[in-house]
Amino acid sequence: MDALLDQLGLQARKAARTLATASEAQRNQALIAAAARIGEHTEAILAANAEDMDAARQAGKPAAYLDRLKLTPERVAAIKDAVAAIGALPDPVGRVLAHIDRPNGLKIDRIAVPLGVIGMIFEARPNVAADASALCIKSGNAVILRAGSDSLASSRALVNAMREGLAAAGLPEDAVQLIDTTDRAAVQALLQCTAHVDLVIPRGGRGLVELVRDQARVPTLLHLDGNCHTYIHAAADIGKAVAIVRNAKLRRTGICGATESLVVDRSVAQSVLPQILDAMPECEFRGDALACGIDARVRPAIDADFDTEYLDAILSVKIVEGLESAIDWVCTHSSAHTDAIITEDEIAAHAFLTRIDSAIVMHNASTQFADGGEFGMGAEIGIATGKMHARGPVGLEQLTSFKYVVRGEGQTRA
Amino acid sequence: MDALLDQLGLQARKAARTLATASEAQRNQALIAAAARIGEHTEAILAANAEDMDAARQAGKPAAYLDRLKLTPERVAAIKDAVAAIGALPDPVGRVLAHIDRPNGLKIDRIAVPLGVIGMIFEARPNVAADASALCIKSGNAVILRAGSDSLASSRALVNAMREGLAAAGLPEDAVQLIDTTDRAAVQALLQCTAHVDLVIPRGGRGLVELVRDQARVPTLLHLDGNCHTYIHAAADIGKAVAIVRNAKLRRTGICGATESLVVDRSVAQSVLPQILDAMPECEFRGDALACGIDARVRPAIDADFDTEYLDAILSVKIVEGLESAIDWVCTHSSAHTDAIITEDEIAAHAFLTRIDSAIVMHNASTQFADGGEFGMGAEIGIATGKMHARGPVGLEQLTSFKYVVRGEGQTRA
């Protein structure tokens, strides 16, 4: 399997060299052509997906899983539109990030350049094959895709369309490659391939992400927990608080930016908590003794509830004695993804936003806004919960590195 | 040893929380006070260094090693001045890196924040204990220092001064901690301490850097090879070329930005190579057959010469057939640190600067400028040869991460 990855890696590296110096117009042309090919090949893509679906059904996969895997004509059209939309985003390559004029006359520019070769590991959702390829082409990177065994046929069909798009624009097809085997050893080989792979991004369940974290020798950008908090401060507007908490928990319960833990100031808990429970009848609440005492619909929580990412219609509730206690509580239990304060008090908001060390901190907004698209980044390849290189949504800018270009007229160092 | 690192890590994390929200004035005050303490404790620092020197001499360390370890009153004064100078640099914390106004009224800022807890592993040079501590304090980070066993007493004395400076400014002393043991298991424990350490930076020889690369579970910024090239293009100004090559190789042979490989266009080799040899009589040249044929002072190179970082007065010489061959050669043999082209032809320069994917690419300048100070960054904690997070000199900006601060008025996501 190491030999296969060596081969894919060498091909990717070669393609990456060409892509890194291709013009923006040429990279965009590849994406326009790829989008067209996805449209033209819709039937073949659906047929491949039907194969994957049959196998997954026979393997007894649950309904939610099958829904993630399933493609329809509408979903293929959405994938096509997403690829075209990525082509229309601003070019992340070649941005001048800094310019320095030195007293000795040297002129130094820090310029955004592609990372090189990116490995993308995903599970059931076949759209990731197209999205990730498009983001990598746009940012001048080559990508090696590893699909879950259940989505391999669908991914192959989408990858073919992406490669045809590259060829149509005169760019190397090997800028997008699929590891076309279900052998699990390929994941290991990709994660150890430091010679040819500059970055691996996993998209999937906790098992996959932990495997990547524990086994990777290559750099990674990964997303572990999303134990997001919404804190209702004493000076909160109660109407806003109720609407935001409902949205933050229930708009979609399965995304990483969903609020999992509600923190409420004791001074307002008596009034706000019953209103929140009234507004969210479909949600289960698990709270501390104080919360249970305020409203009988809150069931007793155990300690582990406060560190759990439910990804479901369940919310833990902690009553605190004020801003300092709330900040301590969130610092201790947050997974440093996204945490919000609801308050009309600007000083309290400033303290929370400054002292909570999470990738995203919010004031009077739903944590479900934690998303590259909602941030105006156009599209995201994932969300990073580490602090190095990228933090929060990983979009086109985060798929670049930089280099220093130094221009002189014969300067030597004293 | 894991227990010791857990303890140091918890203390560092707590200190880092305080430092991250300390004002710029308070962090600067700590550095001013620390510089003063270094001055006041000069005798104690020199006495500790004398201990280290005695032990290193008894252990039979070579003269160059002893010189790196040795402190003098002048060197202590230079360390003091460096700490004070870092205090005077611009604040890297709180910079607004991007501002996004969303159509739904959300206002999003990307703000520079400290990384958290940084582990610094170094060998003989005791000044690193003070430099790294100062850079971390300035950037709002806590640091855990691991000194080489030979420099432990000197490092302890300098760390004491840094901690006194922190205390004088009302900041937690544990923002600077020394792993006060020579047990090698401590390095392993530091490299695995993902719970409390956000980044490890090694400064030292290849053995240390490779150990960190192979064993770290925490993120790292490290510097492997510096096989830097200077390429003399057909349209080079010969006078500039001779002066630059001499400086790039010989100004200091032991630094990572020193040119190790000279690449010369065949069309100018006959005229420029003998002049370079004339100008660099103290340097040994090892070249390919063409180079040997042009000047008998060039000795035959073996293949390995072209991938060797000599860190000595030795230069490999490759004759190429033109720009394309030169770019191919440098792409193949460069360690992606720093590579330069000497030419008066702007189009050739543009091709080289664009297509060579090294951290630093230069036109008509000495590769010895590859240095944070020379880039106007004030001071560097190291140089990174990877592409993630930081590339090239690692200064104050590179010791920060960022967070997104989202301000709303009750927005919920549709």
Keywords:
4-stranded parallel β-sheet; 2 domains; 43% helix; 7-stranded parallel β-sheet; homodimer; alpha/beta; 16 strands; Aldehyde Dehydrogenase, Chain A, domain 2; 14 helices; Aldehyde Dehydrogenase, Chain A, domain 1; 414 residues; 21% strand
Main sheet makeup of chain A: 7 strands, parallel
Global geometry of chain A: globular
Q: Poorly predicted ranges of chain A (pLDDT <50, ≥5 residues)?
A: none
**Number of DSSP strand runs of chain A:** 16
Strand content of chain A: 15-25%
- Strand adjacency order, main sheet of chain A: 10-9-11-8-7-12-13
CATH class of the largest domain in chain A: Alpha Beta
Q: How many distinct domains of chain A?
A: 2
SSE inventory with pairings:
Two copies of one chain form a homodimer.
Chain A: H1 2-21, H2 24-40, H3 42-58, H4 63-69, H5 73-87, E1 96-101, E2 107-114, E3 117-122, H6 127-138, E4 142-146, H7 152-168, E5 176-178, H8 185-192, E6 199-203, H9 206-215, E7 228-232, H10 238-250, E8 259-265, H11 266-279, E9 284-287, H12 289-294, E10 299-300, E11 314-320, H13 323-333, E12 338-342, H14 346-355, E13 360-365, E14 382-384, E15 392-394, E16 400-411
Parallel strand pairs in A: 3-4, 3-6, 4-5, 7-8, 7-12, 8-11, 9-10, 9-11, 12-13
Antiparallel strand pairs in A: 1-2, 2-16, 14-15
